[in-house]
Amino acid sequence: MMMNKEYENEVKELSIGYFLTGGLVLAIAVLLGLLARMSQTGMFGNVPRFYYSLITLHGMAAFVGWGCFTAIGLTWYVLMKSLDSPLHSIRLAKTIYWLFVAGFVLLVISVLFGSFGGSWVFLYPISFYGYWDTWATVFWTLGVVFAGLGIIFYGVEVLLTIRQAEYSLLAALGFESFRKDFEPIENRVPLSAVPFAVIGLGMIVATVPFAGLLIYEILQALGIVERMDALLAKNILWWFGHPVVYLILFPVVGFFYYVTEKYAGRPIVGERFTKLAWALATIVQNFIGAHHLYADIAQKPWIHVWSQLGTYSIIIPSLISIFSITATIYISKFEWGVASKYMFVSLTFWLLAGMSGWVNATVSLNQHIHNTLWVVAHFHVMALLALSTMIFGMGYELLSDYVGGEINADLASKALWTYVIGAIGFTHLWFIQGLWGGIRRSYASTPDNLSLLTWLSIPFMIVAVIGIWINVYVFYSAIFKSDTLKTPTAAIA
Ligand code: HEM
Ligand SMILES: [Cu+2]
Question: DSSP of 162-187, one letter per residue?
Fold first, then answer.
């Protein structure tokens, strides 16, 4: 293996730059979430517009500004490590950073100065019927277009990097597992690179039509075109809206493989079956978004049936991965460091979040929880306890590789428990409220019998927010203490 690779430091700094920016966005986003929940108790008076704008910005900032953005940022590091090869174009990876930043500035302006509050999914045609100005709709939509371009370029950069490392794309998408001579293949694609290839392709396929929809919406806001069929628009949105969750989940699975192999000191067990499951994900990922539209009775019934079956099938890659990671930990002399502790928590909640997701995906159960706080509970268990824990763990792994022993590992472990206890508390109060009929995105119309649970959730949210802030603090202090990286901004300039 070549020593002292020059490109390595550049990629590490780039990934750290993404992480530091995303961490700051998360620190603010969770505060907005807390304020939104507090406003539901009525403690700020009757402020529905404030609430809608808050959740809109919270959702977009936490999900895209933190989740997708840091998943992309850490991809560069893990892809480089697992392929043992430089990125195809570090300039493109930096351009993606700036596209997200530019998009994010537009989104923030739209909410802060234009009072946009159409929710982070802004389901068509809500952007045109709100309490906000038309220019706010244009800014918001344009901001999403910028992020969308960043996402398309991400897919392109991932696939080109894999090609440059001389692996076949078909093999990287999991189809290598079909080869009869699988075991003897000498240079099999490293398993930890596979999830990036799958989501890279998936995002290119899903984002192009979505970008078309966004441009249409901008033209409609400017009065150039008439309104379009709402059901069609919703299908295009969810065609993208579902797999964009995988833009966080799949990289996170890549981080899992990477960290597991490193701390177990051996390859993941069951590589062939795991790759087979990824081949399935490659095909199915782009065809199940309509499971968000079970309540749209104008939708053709076969689409509902297919969406349920397809969603069930995509549980397989998660289940196989959870199994093979756990088995690898079990049979190896596993080392427990900050990164692997975060990973273990993440693994547990990945399984649990999957179970509540299975309820959402099942038509006959979905009708009981559709648009309730159950759904909000499900995706916060996923986003906070399964995905963000692993993103933090991976961030710590990168950081310790970069700055050495200057991380306050003790504080990082305390932060983990603080945030996990807080997040378990408030998400489970949401599950109960959802089962009792509490509607999501509803300001001040939560029935009286649910308001006690809303109050109870607030201390848990405060604890979770503090846990997240401590994590971000541990990161920043490790960077500023170390003189390896002169200024964090140097990484992405
Ligand atoms: C301590 C951490 C967090 C708190 C206190 C929090 C709080 C909230 C609250 C109160 C809502 C509104 C729910 C409703 O009434 O319908 C919400 C929605 C949402 N949250 Fe969080 N959240 C946190 C973390 C996260 C994270 C890490 C993510 C994603 C990575 C996330 C993504 C979202 C999304 C996408 C929505 C939906 C927004 C919408 O309906 O437009 N949240 N959150
Ligand atoms: Cu979905």
Answer: HHHTT--HHHHTTGGGG-TTTTT-TT
